[in-house]
Amino acid sequence: MRIKFLGTAAAEGTPAFFCDCPVCEKARKLGGKNIRTRSQCLINENLLIDYPPDTYMHTITGGLDLRKIESVIITHSHGDHFFPHDINMNAPPYNVGNVFHIVNYYGNGHIYYDLKPLADQQQNNITVNQFQLFEQTKISGYEVTPLRAVHDRREECLFFVIEKDGKRFIYGNDTGYFPDDTMECIKGKRFDAISLDCTTGKDRDGGNHMGFEDIIEMKKRLIENGNADEKTIFIAHHFSHNCGFVYEDTVKLLEPHGFLTSYDGMAIDI
Ligand SMILES: [Zn+2]
Ligand SMILES: [Zn+2]
Ligand SMILES: [Zn+2]
Q: How many whole angstroms separate alpha carbon 5 and alpha carbon 126?
């Protein structure tokens, strides 16, 4: 399974739109891996996780080919993960050459009710499906299990287990510490790769997001829960400019704790 992190930022991107804090200024100066667009992840070539406003940018510079995408699974309705305006770009007159390409969207109740009117107009070439929490669903050749995230209490925010050919990946962003029922659902299952939300970086959180110390603690809990061993690849992911560090400094900080630091375009094979 190839996992490609197309975007790795929180809502504001790095550098952030109007901001001149030290992290944003340093990112502007250094460029490269220090520049982060809003989070999105591609599995092989046909499954997409989240649909942020930078999806278009990822088709131009990130190697994303939306014509190969069969399904999109969405974590929650925040604007850095779900941008319905551009979902409509699969419909004429915005798409006139690939008009029979249907994309299947999956999400929580918010996503379902938001996209249902679009899906009901057949020319938009989308279907929309509501996830049932903890229920494994076959999607485009993968077994996908939606897990409960601790994030925005106004909706059931999700993150995902993705399995194929005996390989297992947890895609996490916008989670605090995994809640008890999620830990119970994955108990004893070993994963080849696990990405963890690292939005707040230098600041501890655990309630809506996680920071450096939180993900180190979370890694320990996952090992105790039977989810990881020395071969499991841990990835810190989804960074805010408020995390306090650009990519290059984050790598120095997290490497000793056995974490890769995600950057736009990073791909791993499991
Ligand atoms: Zn986010
Ligand atoms: Zn900033
Ligand atoms: Zn969010």
A: 24
Q: What is the pLDDT of residues 144-200, one digit of tens each?
A: 999 999 999 999 999 999 999 999 999 999 999 999 999 999 999 999 999 999 999
Fold assignment, 2-265 = Metallo-beta-lactamase; Chain A (3.60.15)
CA of 4 to the centre of ligand 3 (A): 20
8 Å CB contact between 247 and 261: yes
- Helix boundaries (H) for 35-153: 55-61, 84-87, 109-120
* Amino acid (one-letter) located at 43: I
Query: So where are the chain's domains?
Result: 2-265
Beta-carbon count within 10 A of 243 CB:
24
27 near 246, Cβ under 8 Å?
yes
Strand boundaries in 18-141, DSSP class E: 40-43, 47-49, 71-73, 103-107, 126-130, 137-139
CA of 160 to the centre of ligand 3 (A): 15
CA 123 – ligand 3 centroid, Å: 30
Cα of 241 vs centre of ligand 2, distance in Å, is 5
Please state, in angstroms and rounded to a whole number, the distance separating the CA atoms of residues 148 and 181: 8
How many whole angstroms from 143 Cα to the centroid of ligand 2?
38
Give the distance (Å) from ligand 2 centre to CA of residue 21.
Answer: 4
Q: Is the pTM of this model over 0.90?
A: yes
Q: 10 Å Cβ neighbour count for 85?
A: 7
Residue matched to tokens 């007159």: 93
